[in-house]
Amino acid sequence: MRTLQDIHEEYNFLEGDERYRLLIELGRELDEMPDALKTESTLVRGCSAQVWVYPTGDMEKLHFLADSNAAITKGIVALVIAAVQDKPAPEVSQMDIAEALSPFDLKNQLSSNRTQGVPNMIALVKDHAARIATG
């Protein structure tokens, strides 16, 4: 998976529909999430599309599987995951993920329907990291 910084450099260079294409491409690059993991317990509430996030890993290296039934939403999920993927749980639990995503200006680039679930995705990721970090 690309780093958030690498993604931002490319995103900044693009405009309009090209940014949508980049988001769709990022979604396709996510690790495949088996259908068996797409359950009510992994479903992120508050998203206009269906979004699933499944945490794995340990204190030293959190890893997330994620998917969505909408291509652009899946790209947004990929941005959230890129911010935290394979980082230590204590770091992720203290991280300001919303701030890390702020250079993408998603609220002004995308409709509110597409971004409304982002805070819930962030909360899920941080909660999992905090649980792991505190043992």
UniProtKB/TrEMBL annotation:
Full protein name: SufE family protein
Record organism: Aurantiacibacter aquimixticola
Ranges of residues in domain Fe-S metabolism associated: 15-127
Pfam family, one: SufE
InterPro entries tied to this protein: Fe-S_metab-assoc_dom (IPR003808)
Family: Belongs to the SufE family.
